[in-house]
Write a structure and sequence with these properties.
- By secondary structure, the protein is mainly beta.
- Helices cover 8% and strands 37% of the residues.
- Strands 4-5-2-7 form a four-stranded antiparallel β-sheet, with no helix packed on it.
- The chain is elongated, with a radius of gyration of 39 Å.
- The termini are far apart.
């Protein structure tokens, strides 16, 4: 006999199909499947794909040529059969198909065929093999390089941050994986702004849990300093830019900000130097900035590699004003000359 089931509106796609169902047979002489029987060649059962030129599920005679892995040898099929506990001869079947993206069967309507053996050649008795459900078909689509496997719709309603001005524009739809929000670097002090990011409902996916996130777009810490120091010129890169040097003292604006010095006056980062025999005491200022360290190095000669911290007997904070620290450095003056420099590391 032949059992023909057509899956409504389902067509063959690239990916992995897992088909499961139950088979029973009371004839112990000729089971539909037994341990000594190859489930693939001994029984003719599995998925088929309808020929669009002949849209009728084919009958299987004594061969399995109507099954998809026979129609396209590029489709692999793995059979697994296990006994069901209890009385009788029931077995649970699972067939896993892997359909490649170049299969000529793609797009054909899917169907299911079940043909039990008609007779036992050895005993000349008919098989009583029977199919039983539930028939379960799971499908995992194959990923291709043609584009993202998943894309989500979203809105930014309620945001105070502006695309292009405050952050780089996002794509129209978000791809599966990590989507970065990249702030735009400028010289403008605007205050903190927010990007309200909400996934939009769609028939293509299901949203579980929270669908909204709020991302803060903050000014660079240097922007506030820039506004306070340069006023109306704060947005002029030639005056207030990171690499500008409006006071001509060889310290770029970035260094002036880190060392808390005046960017419009040619000055030294060292606020005082005194000699208290036998020590040389130097003070300097530095701004507390995450990820930035400032420390002193001394040398007995200007030629490298003489610079280092080994000759410093003490370096520590002796005062704090907001985010600016005053640091004291004590160096024993046991040589004819000493040189000092500040090292900035990011």
């Amino acid at each position: 006999g032949v059992c023909k089931l057509q899956f409504d509106d389902l067509v063959l796609e690239a990916g992995t199909y897992t088909l499961s169902f139950y088979v029973g047979d009371a004839d112990t002489n000729y089971l539909f499947y037994a341990v000594h029987t190859d489930p693939e060649t001994g029984n003719h059962v599995g998925l088929t794909a309808i020929d669009p030129q002949n849209p009728v599920l084919p009958d299987m005679g004594s061969t399995s040529d109507s099954l998809i892995h026979q129609l396209d040898p590029g489709i692999t099929a793995n059979f697994s059969v296990s006994a069901v506990p209890g009385d009788g001869e029931w077995t649970q079947w699972a067939i896993e198909y892997t359909v490649p993206s170049d299969s000529p069967m793609l797009g054909r309507p899917l169907g299911f065929l079940f043909r039990k053996p008609s007779r036992n050649a050895a005993f000349e008795t008919r098989s009583t093999g029977a199919f039983d459900g539930p028939l379960v078909l799971d499908f995992v689509p194959a990923l291709t390089n043609a584009g993202p496997a998943f894309a989500a719709d979203y809105t930014t309603a309620g945001s105070t941050a502006t695309p292009g001005a405050d952050y780089l524009p996002l794509p129209a739809r978000l791809a599966e994986g990590t989507n970065s929000i990249i702030p735009v670097t400028d010289l403008i002090e605007e205050g903190g702004e927010q990007l309200v990011f909400s996934l939009a409902a769609s028939s293509n996916y299901y949203i579980s849990g929270s669908a909204t996130a709020v991302v803060s777009v903050l000014d660079h810490p240097m922007d506030g300093w820039r506004a306070a120091q340069f006023g109306t010129n704060a947005t002029n890169p030639a005056v207030a830019g990171d690499t500008a040097n409006p006071d001509g003292d060889s310290n770029l604006n970035t260094m002036e900000w880190i060392l808390a010095t005046d960017p419009l006056a040619a000055d030294s980062p060292f606020t005082s130097t005194t000699f208290n025999d036998p020590n040389w005491i130097i003070t300097y200022t530095r701004r507390k900035i995450p990820g930035v360290s400032v420390y002193a190095e001394v040398a007995s000669a200007l030629a490298p590699p003489a610079w280092g911290t080994g000759a410093i007997s003490y370096e520590g904070v002796i005062g704090v004003n907001g985010d600016v620290e005053t640091v004291a450095v004590i160096v024993p003056f046991d040589l004819d000359q000493r040189f000092i420099q500040l090292q900035i590391e990011e």
